[in-house]
Amino acid sequence: MSGAGASEMSAAADSPTEAASFAYCTQVAREHGRNFYYGMKLMPQPRRDAMYAVYAWMRAADDLADEPGEATAKSAQLDAFRRQTDAALDPHAAVPQGRPSTHEAMWPAVASTFRRYGVDGRHLHSMIDGQLQDQTQRRYADFAALEQYCYSVAGTVGLVCLSIWGAADDAEARRLAVRRGQALQLTNILRDLVEDAHRDRLYLPAEDLAQHGLDDVTVLRMLRDAEPDERFDALLAMEIERARSCYRASAALESHLDAECRPTCWAMMRIYEQLLEKIAADPRRVLRQRVSLSTPAKLAIGLRAVMGGPAGMKAAQ
Questions:
Q1: Which of 8-17, 89-98, 142-151, 283-292 is least confident?
Q2: Residues with Cβ within 8 Å of residue 79, at least 6 apart in sequence
Q3: What is the C-alpha separation between 253 and 174, in angstroms, rounded?
Q4: Residue 200 zone, left/alpha/beta (φ > 0; ψ -120 to 50; rest)
Q5: For residues 316 and 291, what is the distance between their CA atoms, to the nearest angstrom?
Q6: CB pairs under 8 A, 24+ apart, for 211-218?
Q7: Distances from the Cα of 182 to the Cαs of 61, 131, 151, 157, in angstroms?
Q8: CB contact at 8 A, 83 and 61
Q9: Which residues contact 121 (CB under 8 A, 6 or more apart)?
Q10: Which of these, 2, 111, 246, 265, could form a disulfide with 95 (CB 3.0-4.6 Å)?
Q11: What tens digit of pLDDT does each residue of 11-26 get?
C-alpha cells in the first residue's frame, strides 16, 4: 500500500488497530459498494473513513441476513450482531475485536465512528429489526407495510449518515433522509425482483398486484420464468413512478447538510435515480440482468457533484 493511500485510509484512526480496521472498511466499500463508493469517495477526511465504516457495518448486517441457512440460526447471528453493536456504541465498553479479513475486522473503526459522531443506536437497532423481519416475512399486504420495511432497512441508513453529514438535529433533514432511503430501497427492490423471487420473496404489495389483476403466485412465476405480460408491465410502471415520487420528495435533502457533504449525498442519490430511469426505459430488462451503470457514468455523476452543478445544493435558509 502506498504511503498516500495508507494515510488516507487511516485519517480517522487513533491507533494502529483502528488504522487497520479503517483500511478494512475502505476495502469493503471499494469491493462491494459499487454504487455508493463513488459518492463516499467525494467526502473529505475524516468523514470519508466514517462513511466507509458505516457502509461496512450495513454490509455486515445485510450479509448476515442474506447468507444461506435456517432462519432461526440467522436470527441468532443477528442478535449477537446487535450485542456487538451495543458495545460499539457504548463509550465505556471495550471495543469489539475480531479476526482480520472478516466482517469482525470492522469493529474498531465502527466503534470509533459511532462514538465520535454520536450515532443514535435506535437507528441501528431498527435496521437490525428490518433484517430480522426478512427472515420470516416474504410478502407485504399494502404499501404502508412496505413503507415501514423501507424505513427499517434504508431510512435508518440515511438517519445514521446525518450524524456524519452534520444534520442529525435537523427535523426536516431527518424527514427528507427517510424519504430518500425509501427511494433507494424501492429502486433496489425493482433491480432485485428476480433474485428475490428465487428466494420466494416478493416485496411488491399484494394490493398493487390485485389492482392489476395479479397475485403473488402469478408474479413469482413470471419472474422465475421470464414470461411477463402487459399486466406485469403496468405494475412495474406504477412502482417506478412511486419511486420517482420519493426522489422528488427528498430533493431538498442536500441543502440541509454541511457544504462538504452535499456532493456525496447527491452523487449517491443520482446514481440510484439513474438506475431507476434505466429500468423505466425497459422495465423487462430486470428479468434479463441486474441493471447497473457503467463506471464512466458514475464518474461523470461524481464530477458533476464536485463541480456543484446540481440544483438544491445550496444551504437551507
A1: 8-17
A2: none
A3: 9
A4: left
A5: 34
A6: 211/235, 211/238, 212/238, 216/139
A7: 18, 15, 7, 10
A8: no
A9: 85, 86, 89, 114
A10: 111
A11: 556 676 899 999 999 9
Distance, CA of 235 to CA of 101 (rounded, Å): 43
What percent helix, strand, coil does the chain show, rounded to 5?
Answer: 70, 0, 30
What is the C-alpha separation between 185 and 155, in angstroms, rounded?
Answer: 9
Residue length, the chain?
317
Residue type, 16: P
- Cell numbers 500500500 correspond to 1
Residue 173 CA to residue 255 CA, distance in Å, equals 9
Q: What are phi and psi of 213, to 5 degrees?
A: 70, 30
Question: Where do we find the cell 457502509?
Answer: 55
The enclosing H or E element of 125 equals helix 121-133
How many CB atoms lie under 10 A from the CB of residue 26?
Answer: 25
Contacts by residues 56-59 (CB-CB < 8 Å, ≥ 24 positions apart): 56/24, 56/25, 56/28, 56/29, 56/103, 56/106, 56/109, 56/110, 57/85, 57/106, 57/110, 57/124, 58/127, 58/157, 59/28, 59/32, 59/33, 59/103
pLDDT in tens, 119-167: 999 999 999 999 999 999 999 999 999 999 999 999 999 999 999 999 9
The single residue listed with the C-alpha cell 443506536 is 121
Q: Three-state SS for 291?
A: coil
